[in-house]
Specification:
- By secondary structure, this protein is mainly α.
- 81% of the residues lie in helices and 1% in strands.
- The chain contains 13 helices and 2 strands.
- The protein has a two-stranded antiparallel ribbon with strand order 1-2.
- A hairpin with a 2-residue loop joins strand 1 (127-128) and strand 2.
- The longest helix is centred in the C-terminal third of the chain and has 27 residues, at 193-219.
- The two termini are 24 Å apart.
Amino acid sequence: MLVSITCFAANSLLLKLLARRAVDPWLSLSARFALGLALTMVLLAPELKRCFRNRLLVSRGILGGLATICFYFSVGPLGAGKAALIGTLWPVFATAGSVLMLGERLALGNSLGIALALGGLALLTGVELGAIRPPSCWELTGLAGSVLAAAVVLVIRELTRTESSATIFTSQCLFGLLLGLPFAFVRFEPIAAADWALVGLASACAAAGQLSMTEGFRFLAVATGGALQIVVPLVVSIGGVIFFDERFTLLQAGGGGLILAGAALALRRSP
């Protein structure tokens, strides 16, 4: 999980850099899935047929691909820090889903955490210069990605009982590539060699982060693994301020803090 935190944070910051260099997100997205698929095929030899025959693997692939698309497209307009903070809401949705789908108990602390995180979201996205405003389309896109990511985690939790990490990750790469490659092909424009290097590095970070997170969930409960993943937006937000001069108002910073605190509470183990 610590390896995945490092890799996901690096990937988010590289995506912001690629957005500033006007690299099409569809290209970055397709490169991520293509490299991930190549790595798993060469190093881990997953069972490709199972990715199409197992309904949970198909669901993991499609949901994971859609969640990744939402994040890749929201990083540029929102900034790496804000996009990552909105994405942090996935543990909140995963906790609620684990109660409904996995039969886990929801304690008072979990409920309080959910309320805090949703209040933090309102401050992060709905306050601007002292006025209330509706969420933008990119904020809604990030939120949709967070809901999809929560569904992915629940599916992964079930899949780790019968499937290898390689097969689970391969399902995301296969279906994600099927979703993204047609758009990348239609919109393709030549980019510089330095941009290709950045795309490759971001893709490698994403692949390493996803594989290590999937393996982590083999041994950790949703609550434990999710609590560790909360560190990612904190690292990304700090990196966004340092490297990209991203800024948060006091209320937005408070909202981000509430999201982190709420997600941590929501993921606490029930007594």
